[in-house]
Amino acid sequence: MNPIALVSNYTGIRQVRTLATQAPTPTAAPRPVGPPPGWYPDPGGPGQRYFDGAAWTHWTHPR
Question: What positions does the domain DUF2510 occupy (predicted)?
């Protein structure tokens, strides 16, 4: 047998075993896709209300 091939295979097997025993790297949860920030029809009344990209704000604007 070729000694270089044996060492190369042994090194590769060690790397695979090391990776297999490590805990997976946590990934960030994907951001929910929604409407972008802006003025939208007010869901609670007449006029418009500002949506900051995550929630409705207290800012309103008459139409």
Answer: 37-62
